[in-house]
Design goal:
Elements lengths: L6 H11 L22 E4 L2 H5 L1 H6 L5 E4 L1 H8 L10 H15 L3 E4 L3 H9 L4 E3 L3 H17 L1
Parallel strand pairs: 1-2, 2-3, 3-4
Length: about 150
C-alpha cells in the first residue's frame, strides 16, 4: 500500500486488505477462504519513518516496503544508499523490521543495488523500473525486427 505516513493510515490499509471479520475488504463472497493476504506498507516519507514502530505494531501489517526515491525526496537528500541522510533512515527501517520480526522490501533500479540491499537484510526486492524494462524490451524487439 503506497503513501502510508502513519500507524493510523496503516491500520486502515491493513483493514482494506483483509476480508471480514479481520478487515472490511469486499470480495463479494468469491474470495473468502482462499488464504490470508500479505499487507506491505510502503515507507516513502520522513513521517512514515518517524511512525515506523507504531506502524509495525498494527495488526494486519505484515511487512514494510521502501520506496527509496520518494523517501529521498521527502528527506531532502540524494537517491544514494550511501547518502548521509538516506543511509541511516534505511538502517532504521531494516532494524525496526528485524525487531518486529517482519520482512522489509525495497526497490532497486539495478542488480548491484539489489544485491547490496539483500546483503543488508532486505528480503523483498524489485530490480527494475517499468519505464526502463519497457524501453529495453522495445529496443530489443526493434533490433530483432530490423535484423
Amino acid at each position: 500500500m503506497p503513501n502510508v505516513n502513519s500507524a493510523a493510515q496503516a491500520r486502515e490499509a491493513a483493514g482494506a486488505c483483509r476480508y471480514p471479520p479481520a478487515g472490511y475488504r469486499s470480495g463479494g463472497g468469491a474470495m473468502t477462504g482462499v488464504g490470508e493476504p500479505f499487507c506491505l506498507i510502503m515507507v516513502e516519507s520522513a513521517q512514515a519513518v518517524a511512525d515506523l514502530a507504531a506502524t509495525l505494531a498494527e495488526d494486519g501489517v505484515d511487512g514494510i516496503y521502501v520506496g527509496p526515491r520518494d523517501l529521498s525526496y521527502s528527506l531532502g537528500c540524494q537517491l544514494d544508499p550511501d547518502d548521509p541522510v538516506l543511509k541511516p533512515a534505511l538502517e532504521r527501517i531494516r532494524s525496526a523490521c528485524a525487531a518486529a520480526g517482519k520482512p522489509v522490501g525495497i526497490h532497486a533500479a539495478d542488480g548491484g543495488t539489489a544485491r547490496r540491499y539483500r546483503d543488508e537484510g532486505c528480503s523483498l526486492i524489485t530490480v527494475a523500473t517499468d519505464a526502463l524494462a519497457i524501453s529495453r524490451g522495445t529496443a530489443a524487439e526493434l533490433a530483432a525486427a530490423q535484423g
